[in-house]
Specification:
Length: 483
């Protein structure tokens, strides 16, 4: 077969098929392959009928169709399937050829694969792909990282098919090793946080303000015209007013037990591993876990009493706007925490992350796309060395303006007994972050009292000392290290 395909794509499930059609629309010739090869014929006869897409029945045949350097992209289930394909592909490729993994792989796996492939002369790229089915078809957000030598060869395809925001592609080179998949992981964690915040706003509207679905939908429609303008607020507006065949609101019939595929959990684990207080994403993961304890919650709901009513008795219109402000302020905290985590990982892995560029990559095409990300991009453009988003004048000002309403919502929710874990943890983080002095002095004293773990004095940082607090303990201290 003559070498005519610009790129091969392995994996003909929802993401792969749509990405192929998107590439085809942008003038690239794609060779399609799938483990179950019968799907190749079916795809060519149906979804890809009338396109320039070609198919291959084996990896050998697929590789022969490719222009050099060969570009092979996988969109298969993350995990061993990716390693299996790499093992089969490497002997068929030449030095300088490129393998791209567009699945939701763990960044540590990508770091390993980049290294292993480089040892064999193959350029490996791990790319976050966000936007689901629609994004893949009409413009995803793409977050490629890995072997930088691959970027010039894949850039035209990636930037060609990516979503555009402010006329710029939502795709740029992220960094070495697993940087692309790390950034995608944080994106997914932030998505967990955004969804949880919206759910808490909905819960308060329903339980504290007794609003019906049509009213709530209108509120989200209104919110979508301001600073909260985003894909997730927009779909929430649609979901809330969607009626089932019997005329009843569908969302109210859905079992309140949240599923998860793991990327939020990975973000929380990375936060713990790197010692970064990414509390809002953590709470969002735990909120899903709590929701799934349905039977236990049903029993507990009969036994564990809360306040006599969840109904808010004050100025409802004003409280509704306070919920909007609490959502906005909490969202700022969540993104500030997500960027803190990326900054720490960049420091540890020596990635040169472009934070404004990342905000632009998320600005369109993906699930967390929003107007707000434009403000984040601007903040990092003004100051690429910004240590924390909260210190940017725009976001500092936004938090100051919403602060009173945010505190009112968290306090009222606590009084009424309506759970708002993400709103609350965001506010606790804000108060902790802005505290010149925290009670960790007492904590250090406790550690030294019971475990001789030592402490530093305010006027002698870096010098660890131990006190014999009781008079009968020894004077020997434990080793000093950070877990
Ligand atoms: P799936 O995650 O459902 O994977 C289906 C593909 O993986 C099929 O091509 C299947 O081949 C192949 N596959 C499986 Br399953 N096990 C395999 C194995 N052991 N060896 C070789 N191939 C295997 O597809 P998807 O939803 O299109 O997602 C593709 C990737 O993109 C995943 O990593 C996913 O996490 C990620 N992603 C998905 C979305 C989304 O919205 N769905 C969004 C962003 C990223 P077969 O046909 O022979 O079974």
């Amino acid at each position: 077969m003559s070498e005519k395909a610009d790129i091969a794509l392995i994996g003909l499930a929802v993401m792969g098929q749509n990405l192929i059609l998107n590439m085809n629309d942008h003038g690239f010739v794609v060779c399609a392959f799938n483990r179950s090869v019968e799907k190749v014929d079916s795809f060519l006869k149906n979804e890809a009928k009338g396109t320039k897409v070609i198919g291959a029945k084996s990896l050998e045949e697929m590789v022969k169709t490719l222009k050099k350097p060969r570009r092979v992209m996988m969109l298969v289930k993350a995990g061993s399937a990716v390693d299996d394909f790499i093992i089969k592909l490497v002997p068929l490729l030449e030095k300088g050829d490129i393998i791209i993994d567009g699945g939701n792989s763990e960044y540590v796996d990508t770091t390993r694969r980049v290294k292993e492939c480089a040892e064999k002369g193959i350029l490996f790229v791990g790319s976050g792909v966000s936007g689901g089915e629609d994004g893949a078809r009409y413009g995803p957000s793409l977050m490629p990282g890995g072997n930088p030598a691959a970027w010039p060869a894949i850039k035209p395809i990636f930037q060609g098919i990516a979503a555009k925001a402010d006329n710029e592609p939502c795709c740029d080179w992220v960094g070495d090793g697993g940087a692309g998949h790390f950034v995608k992981m944080v994106h997914n964690g932030i998505e967990y946080g955004d969804m949880q915040l919206i759910c808490e706003a909905y819960h308060l509207m329903k339980c504290a303000l007794n609003m019906d679905n049509s009213e709530m939908s209108k509120v989200f429609e209104e919110w979508n015209k301001g600073v909260l303008d985003s894909f997730l607020i927009e779909i929430t507006k649609d979901i809330l007013k969607f009626k089932d065949k019997d005329g009843k609101y569908l969302v109210e019939k859905i079992r309140d037990s949240a599923g998860q595929k793991g990327t939020g959990k990975w973000t929380a684990i990375a936060a713990l591993d790197y010692g970064m207080p990414v509390t809002l994403i953590g709470e969002s993961v735990f909120s899903r876990c709590l929701s799934s304890l349905v039977e236990e919650r049903h029993k507990a709901s009969e036994l564990l009493k809360g306040p006599p009513t969840t109904e808010f008795k004050g100025d409802k219109k004003k409280f509704l706007d306070s919920i909007r402000q609490a959502l906005y302020a909490s969202k700022i905290i969540s993104y500030a925490q997500g960027f803190m985590l990326m900054r720490e990982a960049a420091h540890l892995y020596n990635w040169n992350l472009n934070y404004g560029g990342i905000a632009l990559m998320w600005r369109g095409g993906c699930i967390i796309r929003s107007v707000f990300l434009g403000n984040i991009k601007t903040a990092f453009e003004h100051n690429p060395k910004l240590t924390n988003l909260l210190l940017d004048p725009f976001f500092n000002d936004a938090i100051q303006k919403s602060q009173a309403a945010w505190r009112e919502v968290v306090a009222t929710a606590a009084v009424l007994g309506v759970p708002t874990p993400a709103f609350s943890t965001a506010l606790a983080f804000y108060d902790g972050y802005r505290s010149k002095r925290l009670p960790a002095n007492l904590l250090q004293a406790q550690r030294d009292y019971f475990g001789a773990h030592t402490y530093e004095l305010l006027n002698e940082p870096g010098k660890f000392v131990h006190t014999n607090w009781t008079g009968h303990g020894g004077n020997v201290s434990a080793s000093t290290y950070q877990a």
